[in-house]
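Bumping with the actual sequence this time:
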Amino acid sequence: MNEPSKRQNSAERHEAIDVSDFVYAATGARVRRLTTPDGKHWFPAVDVCKELGHTNSRKALADHVPDEHREMLETVTGGYGLSVPAGRGWRRDLHVISLQGLVLLVNACTKPACAPFRQWVAEVIETVQREGSYSLDEAEVQPVGPGAPIAYAMPEQVAEAIVRLEAHNLQLDEELAGGQRESIALQKETVKMQRELLVTQQATLAVQQAMVRAMERIADRFDGLVLERRPVRGHLTTLPTTESVLAGWRERLSVTEDVWAVAVAIAPVLVEEGELREPLESIAARTGLSVRRVNDCLRLLRKHACIRSRGGAEDGAPVYVLHRA
């Protein structure tokens, strides 16, 4: 068979089909390659077997590749005085196969993707049997300049395999890019939710700090205060303090944070002045609650007999006094 790759331009050999394209069409992947000074190509058997679906590379080599087309990497490099390539898993004991050994493995492969390549190999053999030789057609566009190599048209089956595999790779790249975009969108949404949660936590913390400051002011004001006793109709009675009022309210009802904030705000006024004539807006401002919620809290305190209503003031503000049993 007259291989077109043996045609020479001057004294330099030129491959009719680039070896990378040839291997890509045969295996569907860009496998590692070692090219010796005489132009012979060697490929790691494990790479080729992996791409072709051979699960047991040793068995695949023993079944389909003769000894003359497989070697150890140390033997190949030692024959030319070369060093073992560094990195990417190249080892001295690595099994390597020649380009012909690679074609033999491809012919033994049952993957549909290898069918066009096997068909082309069969076409080459048939053409040689019928015509005595096989050669590639020269490309319509040839390199110019002195010493330029002859360019050949790539076989249709090989070209279609390369185009199909490249299209598959592009599809995988698009799917990967789509997954990355979805991941980025999800990360942005997560960051947004975390920011909203942080704002809510900061608002809750501000309310809690306001309640603590209010309680500290009350504690400072009534620090050391003792119960006074006053005669009433011949009997001694104990006057309420803010602490005793709040303690009684806590025992009387289930106190939530907002109810407790209102209770802490109005108890000192009821104890010191005997009544509360403060607009709801003022209580809301001191507690950080809404006017509506303040009104609900006061209604709950009235319902559980903590305070009672005594009409309204001149400015329309409700008047409350302590409920006395």
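The tokens above came from a reply further down the thread. The first helix runs from residue 19 to 27.
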